[in-house]
Amino acid sequence: xxxxxxxxxxxxxxxxxxxxxxxxxxxxxxxxxxxxxxxxxxxxxxxxxxxxxxxxxxxxxxxxxxxxxxxxxxxxxxxxxxxxxxxxxxxxxxxxxxxxxxxxxxxxxxxxxxxxxxxxxxxxxxxxxxxxxxxxxxxxxxxxxxxxxxxxxxxxxxxxxxxxxxxxxxxxxxxxxxxxxxxxxxxxxxxxxxxxxxxxxxx
Length: 203
Description:
This protein has 203 residues and is of the alpha+beta class. The chain has six helices and seven strands, in the order E-H-H-H-E-E-E-H-E-H-E-E-H.
């Protein structure tokens, strides 16, 4: 299946995809390998919709990016979210303005093993570099497929937070593995190139 490049959530263009964002979130929680992702079953559609509306509000406030891989549903042909990841970029962080957090990397089961996670993470890093957010942080539960993905993408393990999350399948406490990736050299080079171009334009 050929897929277009991922896109960044645009409030004017993509609000119709809100139910699809809720759907992919719920599907990943309820389907193997049963991702830990904020909510515990039984899932409440209204609560999850409200949660995503809050995230979209942060997009409007320029404090978050929601990146989506879109696809046509195999049965209905309608556009849906096949994969999603978010980059949290708080505006007020005086002591760490170069920091950002990668959150909620989710891919629907029927679209897995198609390179979607890698494409989404590549776009996350491109945006982070563009915005001067060169130190990325993220976490995932120990034993999840994502735990294997992040090191392949250059993320370095910080450590393990013991019993950091509840796994809804059996109520057990799951350890959370924390990672970081330092893009500040690339961010500095990007900023330097931009300043050089601006300087040339003023001559």
